[in-house]
UniProtKB/TrEMBL annotation:
Family (UniProt): Belongs to the binding-protein-dependent transport system permease family.
Segments passing through the bilayer: 66-88, 100-119, 125-144, 165-193, 216-235
UniProt keyword Transcription regulation, yes or no: no
Protein name: ABC transporter permease
Cell membrane found in the keyword field: yes
Protein topology in the membrane: Multi-pass membrane protein
Location of this chain's protein in the cell: Cell membrane
């Protein structure tokens, strides 16, 4: 059964590459540069760029920004999620404001954060944290509201302190929900990252895409796009496996 799933997934990827090749061939009939967008030169350049070390600093810079953004999103989203989940009044007071802010694209804040923080990593950290905080916060709040009340009553009957209730009963009970929110946040952050890295930084995968465009190195550009997809896939798979490990531990 497991091998069937892998075979079907591989077949889907083969179809995707075939459609990619067909699209490049169709475009090449009217635009010769489209041949550089085909799978073969993209994969060939990806191998060269990785083997000669050109891409590794950009990968490292992008992953650092992602992890810092997620760290701040967790630092804010989990406590606020607990507050909203534990207090109906807090939920009623904050829900309209949170829903309003959540619907604003993080990228629309780009001119504001550049004005406030200047160019560099600081505005990117802000935008990534802003994008990631909502799924973490909402999943945490949902998990808190769905905690088995018998567990809470048991803790109270054993005279557990507030600290013990929080760290020994409530937090373990909602960790699965937090990890689900984290997985959603990773997907959002990874999509938002590339345009954020066009804010005047000099390294990162978003910067590398701009650089390849300016150099008209379209096969390298496609290689970077493929790499972004592969890393995003790996991050999502890692988050999914972490959630599965927690549920079965």
């Amino acid at each position: 059964m497991k091998w069937n799933r892998y075979l079907l997934g591989g077949f889907g990827l083969v179809i995707l590459v075939a459609l990619w090749q067909a699209g490049a061939l169709l475009l090449a009939q009217n635009m010769s540069l489209a041949n550089l967008l085909a799978p073969a030169p993209a994969f060939d350049n990806l191998g060269h760029l990785l083997s000669d070390g050109q891409l590794w600093p950009h990968i490292g810079a992008s992953l650092k920004r992602v992890f810092v953004g997620l760290f701040f999103a967790l630092l804010i989203g989990v406590p606020v999620g607990f507050m909203v989940g534990l207090s109906s009044k807090a939920e009623q007071a904050s829900s309209p404001a949170f829903q309003f802010l959540r619907m604003i694209s993080p990228l629309s804040w780009m001119p504001v954060v550049v004005m406030l923080f200047g160019i560099g990593d600081a505005p990117i950290y802000f935008l990534l944290a802003f994008a990631a905080v909502w799924p973490i916060m909402l999943n945490t709040a949902s998990g808190v509201k769905n905690i088995n009340r018998q567990w809470l009553e048991l803790g109270r009957s054993l005279s557990a302190t507030k600290k013990e209730m929080l760290f020994k009963i409530m937090l373990p009970a909602v960790t699965g929900d937090i990890l689900n929110g984290l997985r959603l946040a990773i997907g959002i952050v990874w999509v938002v990252l590339v345009p954020c890295e066009m804010l005047g930084v000099n390294e990162g995968l978003g910067y590398f895409i701009l650089d390849t465009r300016d150099r008209l190195a379209y096969s390298e550009l496609m290689a970077a796009i493929v790499l972004i997809g592969l890393i995003g896939w790996a991050l999502d798979s890692g988050a999914r496996k972490l959630g599965q490990w927690w549920r079965h531990s």
